[in-house]
Amino acid sequence: MRTLDPRITQRVVFSFLFLSTLVVVIPVVWVVGVIVARGSGVLNMEFLTQMPRMGMRAGGIFPAIVGTLALVLGTLIFALPVGIFSAIYLTEYSKRNWLTRFIELAIVNLAGVPSVVFGLFGLGLFVIFFRFGASILAGSLTLAVMSLPVMITAAREALQSVPSSFREVSYSLGATKWQTVRHAVLPHALPGILTGTVLSLSRAAGETAPILFTVAAFYLPRLPQSMFDQAMALPYHLYVLSTQVPNVKLELQYGTALVLVGLIIIMNLVATVIRSYFRAKKQW
Question: pLDDT tens digits, residue range 27-37?
Answer without folding.
Answer: 989 998 999 99
